[in-house]
Design goal:
Radius of gyration: 21 Å
Distance between the termini: 22 Å
Shape: globular
Number of strands: 15
Strand content: 15-25%
Number of helices: 15
Order of helices and strands: EEEEEHHHHEHEHEHEHEHEHHEHHHEHEE
Bound molecules: 3-[(4S)-2,5-dioxoimidazolidin-4-yl]propanoic acid, fe (iii) ion
Length: about 400
């Protein structure tokens, strides 16, 4: 089915910089693919289409790619938020058995229907703000059975919503209570689960939390070695609370991305540049944990490391479902430009997932785009708390905004 979408002001993001603006733009989609993008005056003569949509002069950007979320969980951590306000630190709460472990307990206790319903609700909330591609990590199951269950929920969201979902196994997220004091034994177990989860088709990438309250670089390396044997790409929660040299380790494995990065060193920046890894910035967690150390953004820019931006939605450190609020925080807190923020949640977000077929409005790419009721793309970052998405098209099909 061939469809013409006309009367659009296109922000294509074609090329390495700039908005790629086409003031009087049109798009032609053929099934799930962008077949033609350009100035309406240059539309191929004699073009025959099955359907035509007038976008009413709306500004159109690529669909948003949220490349880092922890959407599958049950329960809430509002009580822990109160404890932090009363003076306890995120790390103290984690060490006392709260934090990630409390979400693991709630997730294991939830029945399948509840776990799926909560995850789907959150995915649709992200979609309503313009997300068309979403990464979902496991990491609140932490047993063979429960990690598989969480990854199946992620896969089901991909089947039953218009969103493209990439599933990442983050079994090395925290030490489950039954392995207390036996972190190496837990890593042995994770290394044994990965081939099984992969054989079931549940994993697109492998992630780990390399930090003081997570796993050591040596333990992370063991997980990555199994991923490499399976041909799976890796990503890393790196240098979030401390500098562990995780970025350098991830670079050895040609990681798709390193994420968080507040404590990233210059050596880490250089390693990421050499490996071609994307820096995924997560201002929601920075804000909500009241972190004061900024990621080394200028050093990343100077080294030419691509910068992506994501919600990091999770119940402990970033309970937001607003990608556009992340645009605003990336600009106000991290001093990204609005263009860097938009590229961060489109082209560079796609790259952080290893997806080369989306992120820009260019012929041949996937037909994922959003029509917004704004005059200029910088308004996406400026108007925090506003929800200007009016039409969302995923894989050539219109979905509810
Ligand atoms: N870093 C984070 O910010 C999330 N996971 C991680 O490794 C937080 C997860 C949580 O607190 O539940
Ligand atoms: Fe995360």
């Amino acid at each position: 089915m061939k469809t013409l979408w006309h009367h659009a002001r296109l922000v294509t993001l074609a090329g390495a910089s700039g908005w790629g603006w086409i003031e009087h733009g049109a798009l032609v989609t053929e099934g799930p693919t962008l077949q033609w993008v350009g100035d309406a005056a240059a539309l191929p003569t004699g073009l025959k289409v099955d359907a035509e949509h007038d976008l009413g002069g709306a500004l159109v950007t690529p669909g948003l790619v949220d490349c880092h979320t922890h959407l599958v969980y049950a329960g809430s951590r509002a009580r822990e938020f109160e404890m932090r306000l009363q003076g306890q630190s995120y790390e103290d709460i984690a060490r006392a058995g709260g934090g990630i472990r409390s979400t693991v307990a709630a997730t294991r206790a939830a029945d399948d229907a509840t776990l799926y319903a909560g995850t789907r609700r959150r995915a649709l909330a992200l979609q309503a703000e313009g997300v068309t591609t979403l990464e979902i990590k496991s990491g609140y199951g932490l047993s063979a059975e429960h990690e598989a269950r969480c990854l199946r929920v992620a896969r089901r969201v991909g089947r039953e919503t218009p969103l493209t979902v990439r599933a990442t196994c983050l079994a090395a997220h925290a030490l489950p209570p039954e392995f207390e004091g036996r972190a190496d034994a837990y890593i042995d177990a994770v290394c044994a689960w990965l081939p099984v989860l992969h054989a079931e088709g549940l994993i697109d990438a492998v992630d780990a939390f390399c930090d003081r309250i997570g796993f050591t670089p040596a333990q992370t390396r063991r997980v990555f070695e199994v991923a490499r044997t399976l041909g799976l790409p890796v990503k890393l929660h790196a240098e979030q609370l401390s500098d562990q040299g995780g970025a350098q380790l991830a670079a050895e494995f040609a990681a798709l991305s390193c994420d968080h990065l507040e404590h990233l060193s210059e050596a880490g920046v250089q390693a990421m540049a050499q490996a071609g890894s994307v820096a995924v910035l997560l201002p929601g967690a920075y804000y909500f944990l009241r972190e004061t150390k900024l990621p080394p953004i200028d050093a990343l820019r100077t080294a030419g490391v691509p910068i992506a931006l994501a919600t990091d939605h999770n119940p402990g450190s970033s309970p937001t479902l607003s990608p556009l609020l992340m645009f605003n925080m990336a600009c106000t807190l991290f001093r990204l430009t609005p263009e860097e923020a938009l590229r961060g949640m489109t082209v560079n977000g796609a790259r952080a997932l290893g997806l080369a077929d989306r992120g820009a409005l260019v012929a041949g790419q996937r037909a994922d785009f959003v029509a917004w009721s704004i005059d200029h793309p910088s308004e996406l970052a400026y108007g925090f708390g506003q929800r200007p998405a009016v039409r969302i098209v995923a894989g050539g099909r219109e979905t509810a905004a």
